[in-house]
Amino acid sequence: MNSGGKNRERFVNPYNFVSLDGRCERHPAEYYREGERLTGYIECSLTTLTPLIIPNTSNDKALHTSRTWSEQSYDFYSYTNLERAKDGAALKKFHEPVIPGSELRGVIRSVYEAAFKGCLSTADVGRTMYRRTMRPKEPGILRKVEGKWMIELCERYLLSVSPARSREGNVSRESHERWKEGAEVSVKVEGEDVSLKPEGNKTKKVVDIKDGHVTADGFQQGYLHKGEAFQNKKTTSVFVPKRDKDNNKTLIPVHEDEIKRLEKVLSQYMDPKLNRHIDAKGHTGYAEYRKVFDQILQTGEQGQLLVYYSTYKPKETEEVQATYLTPAMISKEVYLQTIGALLKANEEYQPCTERSHVCPACGLFGMAGEKPKTSLGSRIRFSDAEYVSNDSNRSREGMYWSILLPELGAPKPGAVEFYTLPPVQTNSGYKKWTYDDVLEAQRKFRLLEPQELRLRGRKFYWHHTPKERKNNSRSDQSNRNVAMQKEVRAVKKGNNFHFRIYFDQVTIKELAQLYWSLALGNSDQYAHKIGHGKPLGYGSAKIKPENIWIRRIDSTSGLRTLSLLDSKELEKHTATLSIAMGQLQHLLNYKSSISEHVSYPKVRFGKKPNKINDSASHQWFKANMTSTHFLKVLPTVEQEVGTEQSAHLFELFKHDKGS
User: Is the pLDDT of residue 654 over 70?
Assistant: First the structure.
């Protein structure tokens, strides 16, 4: 695959990031209650610019009819409980659409946090980060020696497995299945000084195999690594322990944290939400392997487990250690670094947990503390957005659109070339890095300090027009993810809603910042993204603060009055446009010229793709990597809207075998 050619199409990734602009600002909760404070509400209108999707989750088959092929279907959110609705009942009756206040609150809070140095309140600080990697690994045996975890170095040989009554393999598939993972065998192998080399040499093969330990000439002790089962498996691996010149075992140490990481890798393979192949075509999620792993944890020095591993030196003066233990040579890797640790190292943007140390967003929107009496109540409240009907859009036909929404994958922060800034750049690209290390040379990597790796910031989605999708149609049955698709009812573009934001005892600065978060600069070109399907272009909506009402109480008579506040009085409190505010305006510019280029990473073929996944987005990420470098990284927001083509992303071109 390559990126050459004059006719490459540019693409703008559906999301980008607003930078963490300086240090996260934090003060005691009382700081945000000093000086003159205001109470009142803001009247707001909301107009849909693209179809808006907010499902009513009280019934996951609300739109089902005899022609529905998706497993789930949802009506738009309303106050109607559809739990007992059957046979497409939601299609037969009009339910007034509602945008929940919680949905609006989350959208505006995200902007407020990004613009005004708030913490990342919704960050999953303990989230396990992982990535499937092509990093070359070595075979070894994990065991405990004198109470410490060690890896015994091995050579790897291929054992040919064939169907019963076939002469093509060393062992029949039936015999292979009778062996357990890690079973002791004796093998005779081709060649002498055999090892797995990264230079393209093929792994040497087993020419004869016997059960158990055999002392006959030419046979060596080995262990069968069956790995994960799958249909038509033709080879499996045998690990043969290495010996030094004195015929002793060769061992390297393993830190206890590496064992915990291996457990996380295996747990992910057992999770059907993360491993779509489980229970299909013989995949078990490494069930047999997991049993052996659990057994070694229980038996200690009496057990052993066949693994693949990488090596590193914590410091040049220290001994080599094993890391990134996995059940397969090409496997997922789990990283030691957590989002919480990185946020703390990146100017302390981890979520607030103490009312004595609160960011501006938590000071206004509130936050839940980790300990009793550390939480902070909110001083603003969002009403639900009520539908504003008129003669032209009062009917279902005039305002709703049924959409077959494809499966949307979960965020993949393991793609460091998009989620983090490059720690090292060279003339030939960007040295490959992970959340833990950077590859300095082939098979030689250096551990990164948390402050060396910079998170790109807060994710926001670009505006663009959604591609037309067929209503109530049977999806392509060749798509293996058809079961994950959903039929949803969306409110069409051009529909209007109205809501209020009530505020209590806020400062004029806080009110000005809240107003900016709604108006985004008081221009018609800016809009927010709300609801489901944002990566596909859905959910673009223009929020316009109409009136600001201030409630005052006469201290003598107790009389309450409401008066309009001129929004221009707020401008001087947000007059300076910060880097983050400018990036937000670029990202949330509904009329941006780059909107026509927005799509997930593209792969194009010279001829018709052979397989379903040949043109999937992950193929772009795969082709974007050499053995030592990333060719491209995600451009910054400023680069995307700029004219420097060298920073832009382009589709990668893949040739068929015959092209």
Answer: no
Comparing CA positions, the residue from 259, 332, 257 lying closest to residue 294 is 259
The two structure tokens encoding residue 316: 């040049």
- Write the pLDDT tens digit of every residue in 468-481: 655 444 444 444 45
Structure tokens that stand for 310 in this block? 């990488």
Burial letters 276-286, b for 16+ CB under 10 A, else e: eebeeeebbbb
Rounded-to-integer distance, Cα 636 and Cα 651, Å: 18
User: In angstroms, rounded to a whole number, what is the distance separating the alpha carbons of residues 614 and 604?
Assistant: 9
Mean predicted confidence (pLDDT) in 10-23: 95
**Token output for 655:** 């040739």
pLDDT digits (tens, 9 = 90+) for 48-82: 999 999 999 999 888 887 777 778 889 999 999 98
Q: How many CB atoms are located within 10 Å of the residue 340 CB?
A: 16
Residue 146 host element (H or E)? none
Among 433, 462, 459, 489, which Cα is nearest to 129's?
433
Identity (one letter) of the amino acid at 586? Answer: H
Give Cβ neighbours of residue 540 (< 8 Å, ≥ 6 apart).
48, 49, 50, 463, 527, 528, 529, 590
Q: Which two tokens stand for residue 498?
A: 């109205």
Which ranges in 89-233 belong to alpha helices (H)? Answer: 101-115, 173-178
pLDDT single digits (tens) 366-407: 999 989 999 999 999 999 999 998 765 555 567 888 898 887
DSSP-derived secondary structure for 435-473? SSEEEEETTEEEEPPGGGS-B--EEEE---PPPP--SS-
- Place 164 in a pLDDT band, splitting at 50, 70 and 90: low
Asked if 47 contacts 495 with a C-beta cutoff of 8 angstroms, the reply is yes
**For residue 528, what are the contacts with CB-CB under 8 A and spacing of at least 6?**
107, 108, 111, 520, 540, 541, 542, 543, 588
If you average pLDDT over residues 617-627, what whole number do you get?
86
Q: Are 541 and 414 in contact (CB under 8 A)?
A: no
| Dist CA 564 CA 384 (whole Å) | 22
Does pTM top 0.70 for this prediction? Answer: yes
Main-chain dihedrals φ then ψ at residue 545, nearest 5 degrees: -70, 115
Interstrand relation of 444-447 and 437-441 (parallel, antiparallel or unpaired): antiparallel
| C-beta neighbour count of 16 within 10 angstroms | 24
Contact between residue 246 and residue 253 where contact means Cβ atoms under 8 Å apart? no
* Of residues 612 and 268, more confidently modeled: 268
Give the H or E element holding residue 150: strand 148-162
Q: Looking at the predicted structure, is the pLDDT value of residue 141 above 60?
A: yes
Give the whole-angstrom CA distance, residue 10 versus residue 534.
20
- The half-sphere exposure of 645 on its side-chain side, counting CA atoms within 13 A, is 5
Phi, then psi, of 333 in degrees rounded to 5 = -120, 135
